[in-house]
Amino acid sequence: MCEKAEFWENLRSGIFASMVKEASPGQTLSNPDEVYAVVKPLFAVQDDIESFYCIFLNAKNKILAIEKMFTGTIATAAVYPREIIKKMLEFKSEAVVLIHNHPSGDTVPSKSDLEITFKIGIALESIGACIHDHIIVGDGYSSMQQEGQLKTIQNKISEISCHSVL
Prior knowledge:
This protein has 166 residues and is of the alpha+beta class.
């Protein structure tokens, strides 16, 4: 029993979250299950508010960094695409995986989740970068890439960028 209590204490203290962030650069994540396994400890530290993380990737999809970008309240977090762009440029990142939690446990993307993914996608398109996935963590997880929502968003972005005039 003592080992279980110690494990939960370490999980909530952020020790595992620190280990994840320190050990991740250079690693490759190949699917949403792996992303979820890596980021789950990050949300254990403070699971009663929304937190928004980004996994910044290079051209070969190797992790450059995992960064907590935004925190909010129990039901929302303000997300600013310009701050993600700044980090993309800082890390010389070509792609990103977006991850945030829903403290309610419901992993279905909200309308605002889809809207911010679209806005971030447009911003990234302007610098030649892209979103590989947007994962929502709760009681399990959902992947916008697996569910087809990311493809729909990317198609809308392509339509806009193809119809742009100088």
